[in-house]
C-alpha cells in the first residue's frame, strides 16, 4: 500500500498553527499521606468530580486524570493502566491479558535487540529463509516472531494470530509445526476461548538491525466477527478447504475495526505507544524496575511540522502529484511557507514515532517497483493509521482513508 500520515496532508494547514512541543510529562509522583479529615473531604470532592465526569466522553487524558483521584500513585505502569481501564469497563479482562503478554514480549525483544551485537553468531545475520513477503528473514525476525507469538498464544484469549513473518495465520490454541504433527499447546480448558485476532510485525525495520539502528514491533487487535463459525484444522500449513478459506477471509477486517493498536520502538530507550481508540498513550521501559512507565499520558501530533520522511531515492518512480507535493513542501511552498527538511531512518517505527511527536509527514509512496507501496496494510499501515488518527493526524493513500481499506489477504 501507498501510505502517508500527517495532519493535513491533503490540505496543508494554516500558518498560524505552529508546531506544539510534545508534552513529556513524567507522571510519577511520590505517595501522598493525607490526614483523615482531608481524605474524607477529598473523597467527597472526588465523588462529585466523578459524577460530573461520568457525563463526559472517556479519553486517554480523562482516564489518567481519574487516576489522580486515587491520590497515591507511585507512577502509572502499563499493567496498572490496563487494570484501571478494565475497572472502568473501557477494556475487558481478555484484552487486559493480551496486553500483559504484549508487554512481556516487548521486554524480551528489547533485551534481544540490545544484546544482539554481543551475541552476533546467535542473533545477527540471515536465517536463510525468505518470508511470505519475499524478504530475506533475519535470525532476529524468526526469534522475535516466536517470542511474540508464544507470549500471545499462552493467554488463551486469542482466536487467531497473524504475523508478517508467517505464511498463514495461526490458530492460537495450536502449534502448527509444518512438517510434523501439530502439537496442542494449551489444555482444552484454555483453548479456543479467544475472541480476539492479533496481527503483528515482530521486528519491523529488521534490515537495519545488524547495524544497531532503531527497530520496532507493530501490533493491532481486532475482535473476531464470530469465532464459533471458523472450524480450522490444527495445522494450517497443510492447507485449507474452500469453505475454511472463505471463513478466514471473513475475519479480515479494515483498520477501522481495530479495537487496539500499538508499537514498541527499540532505540536509545524502549518506547511503547498504544491506543484503545480513546487517544494515544506512551510508556517508557524503566529497566531498573522492569516496567513500562507512563511518560506521555496523551500524545497529540502537532498540527503543523517541518519534517518529511520518505525514501526519496525512489522519487523518480513516484506519481507526478506525489513528487510535486514533496518538491513544494521542500521549497517552502506549503501552507506554512517554511521549507520542510528530510529525516528518514528507513525503519518505520522510528520514523512514525518522530512524526507523531514532532509533526510532519511520513510516506511510503507507490513506485514502479512497489505499485501499492511497500508497507503492508494489515501489519503496518492499519495499526499505525489507527494510532495516527487517534493522535489527531491523518492517514491516507492519496485517494482514501487507510482505515477504510479492507485487506485483500493475510499478507
Ligand atoms: P524493513 O524492510 O527493514 O523491515 O516495511 C519494512 C521496512 O523496513 C519499514 O520499516 C521501512 O520504513 C521500510 O521498509 C524501508 O524501506 P526502504 O528501504 O525501501 O526505504
Automatic annotation (TrEMBL):
Any Pfam family the entry gives = FBPase
Q: Which EC class, in a word?
A: hydrolase
Q: Which reaction does it catalyse?
A: beta-D-fructose 1,6-bisphosphate + H2O = beta-D-fructose 6-phosphate + phosphate
- Keyword NAD, does the record have it? no
Q: Which residues form a coiled coil?
A: none
Question: Its Gene Ontology biological processes?
Answer: fructose 1,6-bisphosphate metabolic process; fructose 6-phosphate metabolic process; fructose metabolic process; gluconeogenesis; sucrose biosynthetic process
Residues annotated as domain Fructose-1-6-bisphosphatase class I N-terminal: 77-296
Q: Which GO terms describe its cellular component?
A: cytosol
Entry EC no(s):
3.1.3.11
Region: Disordered; residue ranges are 1-33
Q: Look up the record and name the cofactor or cofactors this protein needs.
A: Mg(2+)
Matching entries from InterPro entries are given as: FBPase_C_dom, FBPase_class-1, FBPase_N, FBPtase, Fructose_bisphosphatase_AS
Give the PROSITE patterns listed for this entry. Answer: FBPASE (PS00124)
- Domain Fructose-1-6-bisphosphatase class 1 C-terminal residue range list: 301-408
Which key words tag this protein in UniProt?
A: Carbohydrate metabolism, Hydrolase, Magnesium, Metal-binding
Give residue spans, biased composition: Polar residues.
13-29
Describe, as the record does, how this protein assembles with itself and its partners.
Homotetramer.
Q: Which family does it belong to?
A: Belongs to the FBPase class 1 family.
- Tell me the protein's name: fructose-bisphosphatase
Species of the source: Effrenium voratum
What does the record give as the organism's lineage?
Eukaryota, Sar, Alveolata, Dinophyceae, Suessiales
Amino acid at each position: 500500500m501507498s501510505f502517508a500520515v500527517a495532519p493535513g496532508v491533503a490540505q496543508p494547514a494554516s500558518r498560524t498553527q505552529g508546531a506544539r512541543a510534545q508534552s513529556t510529562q513524567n507522571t510519577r509522583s511520590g505517595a501522598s499521606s493525607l490526614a483523615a479529615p482531608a481524605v474524607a473531604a477529598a473523597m467527597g470532592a472526588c465523588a462529585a468530580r466523578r459524577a460530573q465526569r461520568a457525563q463526559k466522553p472517556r479519553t486517554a487524558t480523562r482516564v489518567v486524570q481519574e487516576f489522580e483521584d486515587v491520590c497515591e500513585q507511585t507512577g502509572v505502569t502499563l499493567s496498572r493502566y490496563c487494570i484501571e481501564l478494565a475497572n472502568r469497563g473501557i477494556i475487558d479482562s481478555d484484552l487486559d491479558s493480551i496486553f500483559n503478554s504484549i508487554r512481556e514480549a516487548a521486554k524480551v525483544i528489547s533485551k534481544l535487540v540490545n544484546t544482539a551485537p554481543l551475541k552476533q553468531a546467535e542473533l545477527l545475520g540471515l536465517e536463510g529463509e525468505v518470508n511470505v513477503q519475499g524478504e530475506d528473514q533475519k535470525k532476529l525476525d524468526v526469534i522475535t516472531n516466536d517470542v511474540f507469538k508464544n507470549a500471545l498464544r499462552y493467554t488463551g484469549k486469542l482466536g487467531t494470530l497473524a504475523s508478517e513473518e508467517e505464511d498463514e495465520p495461526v490458530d492460537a490454541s495450536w502449534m502448527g509445526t509444518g512438517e510434523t504433527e501439530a502439537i496442542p499447546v494449551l489444555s482444552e480448558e484454555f483453548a479456543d476461548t479467544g475472541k480476539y485476532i492479533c496481527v503483528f510485525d515482530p521486528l519491523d525495520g529488521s534490515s537495519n538491525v545488524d547495524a544497531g539502528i532503531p527497530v520496532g514491533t507493530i501490533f493491532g487487535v481486532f475482535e473476531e466477527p464470530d469465532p464459533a463459525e471458523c472450524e480450522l484444522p490444527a495445522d494450517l500449513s497443510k492447507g485449507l478447504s474452500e469453505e475454511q478459506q472463505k471463513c478466514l477471509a471473513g475475519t479480515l477486517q479494515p483498520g477501522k475495526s481495530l479495537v487496539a493498536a500499538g508499537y514498541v520502538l527499540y532505540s536509545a530507550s524502549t518506547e511503547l505507544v498504544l491506543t484503545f481508540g480513546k487517544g494515544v498513550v506512551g510508556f517508557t521501559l524503566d529497566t531498573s524496575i522492569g516496567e513500562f512507565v507512563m511518560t506521555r499520558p496523551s500524545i497529540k501530533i502537532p498540527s503543523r511540522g517541518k519534517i518529511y520522511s520518505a525514501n526519496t531515492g525512489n522519487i523518480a518512480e513516484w506519481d507526478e502529484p506525489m513528487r510535486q507535493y514533496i518538491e513544494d513542501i521542500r521549497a517552502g511552498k506549503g501552507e506554512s511557507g517554511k521549507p520542510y527538511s528530510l529525516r528518514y531512518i528507513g525503519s518505520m517505527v522510528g520514523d512514525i514515532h518522530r512524526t507523531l511527536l514532532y509533526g510532519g509527514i511520513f510516506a511510503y509512496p507507490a513506485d514502479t517497483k512497489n505499485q501499492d507501496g511497500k508497507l503492508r496494510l494489515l501489519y503496518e499501515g492499519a495499526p499505525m493509521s489507527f494510532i495516527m488518527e487517534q493522535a489527531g493526524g491523518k492517514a491516507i493513500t492519496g485517494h482514501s482513508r487507510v482505515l477504510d481499506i479492507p485487506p485483500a489477504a493475510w499478507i
